[in-house]
Design brief:
CATH class of the largest domain: Mainly Beta
Strand content: over 45%
Largest sheet: 8 strands, mixed
Shape: globular
Helix content: under 10%
Distance between the termini: 51 Å
Structural class: mainly beta
């Protein structure tokens, strides 16, 4: 008996539970993300290109879904029109279904018609879904549905300035947690670094992985710091600083203490 598994990531083609399944189907889209300014009552039309980079002909369906992010950064997909700040119902796709021979590309035109009363940021994801593919997962016959998506953010009216704060920052010899809250009405893209000092002298600095924080009600992101971030530090007291940049007029930062050794449980 076959089990159908649907797998999708934003801009990344995934096959649930089987990295070797990439040989079954390979499709690419460009661009992966669109950030559009469309005034209320106006429409915007452009195209997304999808390419079959695999060895087999693929039948593709295109449609929109809502999406959001969990605090740990995992993407959650929901039927169109179900989530706050959804733009899925404003999008028309042409064509919405087509075949792609190996090596061929297809442009899918999208038109976003923004209602006259729209204000602020909305979002959607255009999903490109291939037919179910047979493969073996952990020795059992299974089927996967390859899907890939292009994220679209739509800003209607003037964008508000970036607003963010560090809601929590704690570290220990084994683990740390940094929680960022987006206090504004639009998504924010963060880059950052972690700095560890002893007696004012920088002893270690490392970059944090870039991440996105959506507006409320999905406006918190957790950065978990593993023990590798503090491995090899000598016994003693340290000052740990998180420095974050979301494109606002100033950097966002937080500072805390770290004890290594007998008092810190190295």
């Amino acid at each position: 008996m076959y089990k159908v598994i649907t797998a999708c990531a934003l801009g990344i083609l995934l096959f649930a539970g089987a990295a070797s399944a990439a040989s079954v189907c390979s499709i690419e889209v460009s661009p992966l993300t669109l950030e559009l300014q469309v005034d209320p009552g106006r429409a915007h039309t452009d195209a997304i290109q999808i390419t079959n980079t695999g060895a087999n002909r693929q039948h593709i369906k295109a449609y929109c879904q809502d999406w959001t992010l969990r605090p740990d950064g995992v993407v959650i997909f929901v039927s169109a029109g179900r989530l706050p700040q959804s733009a899925s119902g404003w999008v028309a796709l042409t064509p919405s279904e087509f075949d792609l021979a190996p090596g061929d590309s297809q442009q899918v035109r999208y038109t976003i018609r923004v209602p006259s009363d729209a204000v602020g940021e909305t979002r959607t994801v255009v999903i490109f879904e291939a037919e179910a593919q047979a493969l073996s997962l952990r020795g059992a016959p299974s089927r996967v549905i390859p899907r890939i998506g292009t994220i679209i953010y739509v800003q209607s009216g003037a964008a508000a300035p970036a607003q963010a704060r560090v809601a929590e920052f704690s570290v220990g010899p084994e683990i740390g947690l940094l929680v960022i809250e987006n206090a504004g009405p639009g998504h924010l893209r963060f880059t950052g670094r972690l700095e560890i000092r002893r007696s004012g002298e920088l002893v270690r600095a490392s970059d944090l992985n870039a991440f996105v924080v959506l507006p409320a009600p999905f406006n918190r992101h957790q950065v978990k710091l593993s023990k590798e971030a503090f491995a090899g530090l000598a016994d003693g007291e340290y000052e740990v600083t998180a420095v974050l940049d979301c494109g606002g007029p100033s950097l966002l930062g937080a500072r805390t203490k770290l004890a290594m050794g007998p008092t810190g449980g190295k």
